[in-house]
Amino acid sequence: xxxxxxxxxxxxxxxxxxxxxxxxxxxxxxxxxxxxxxxxxxxxxxxxxxxxxxxxxxxxxxxxxxxxxxxxxxxxxxxxxxxxxxxxxxxxxxxxxxxxxxxxxxxxxxxxxxxxxxxxxxxxxxxxxxxxxxxxxxxxxxxxxxxxxxxxxxxxxxxxxxxxxxxxxxxxxxxxxxxxxxxxxxxxxxxxxxxxxxxxxxxxxxxxxxxxxxxxxxxxxxxxxxxxxxxxxxxxxxxxxxxxxxxxxxxxxxxxxxxxxxxxxxxxxxxxxxxxxxxxxxxxxxxxxxxxxxxxxxxxxxxxxxxxxxxxxxxxxxxxxxxxxxxxxxxxxxxxxxxxxxxxxxxxxxxxxxxxxxxxxxxxxxxxxxxxxxxxxxxxx
Length: 381
Hints:
Blueprint: E1 2-7, H1 12-23, E2 28-35, H2 39-49, E3 53-56, H3 59-68, E4 73-76, H4 77-85, E5 92-95, H5 103-111, E6 115-118, H6 122-138, E7 141-144, H7 147-156, E8 164-171, H8 181-184, H9 189-192, H10 202-210, H11 212-225, E9 232-236, E10 242-248, E11 253-257, H12 263-271, H13 303-313, H14 317-333, H15 341-352, H16 361-380
């Protein structure tokens, strides 16, 4: 039986992971859960799955749940989450905390040599080279949980890397597929949060609408699979059936396909080298009349270009990209920015940054802090 720790258990990925575990109680037990502040959801999870350890980020939520829950060790704050990320008895750490907050716990799991189901793409966007270096030192393994990266992982497994010409990551196109520049300026947060295919958190849903999320996934794929950034492309595929295409030098392709459901990559990350039965509803080919593909319009959605630019510059620039985006998306959601101004703020912050080499996790945190301050300054102005 595998002992699982879920970082971000009250989010969409965490809940889906617990659905898988609930279905296979003979294969998995929950060793630890970590959440930010969703007390009522976390309480129900503790009662059902009976973890030995729980970590809560916010103080008020920590105090409340500590008083209610007996017989379980309740840890506090970022330090507590980092503690359960490196538990010696854990077999799998599912890293599903949203945003930069997931970096330090993921890094602790890597330093501890753990097997990590990675749903927190920001860890590799912010500190990809540093994490890869630490993985070599500790023997830690990362199994991607993003649907596209899980698809690539499955397609290239056993392939000779020199024969891979290009990786294509697919994107639904979000709620504004086909919009013109003038249309995009005045879209509302409510419209941006209305994703046509996936149910996700607020930030990642807005990032999907701007295509920045796909840019982050391009960076993540670059580090996960050691593929040059120029050999990673994006295709808009509104049906969300094909999750990746791997193009080979002979002109042939491999694709990974399924109905859009995050339980598929989550289950694979938990079960490898096995596969679990009946995780996703099979595709009904009688209802799937066509599969469409097109290149993204980066004039309307320029955030995607910033991801490629950040990797080409290197050093701390991807860290700055992520931090500026996180602040800008929050400003958009709170009504302080227009949709098209998300790109403008990120671009200004990147243009103001002199990238430097990352040697330690402190370098990453320094660049992250600088970018957040600069983004807030630009938004204020």
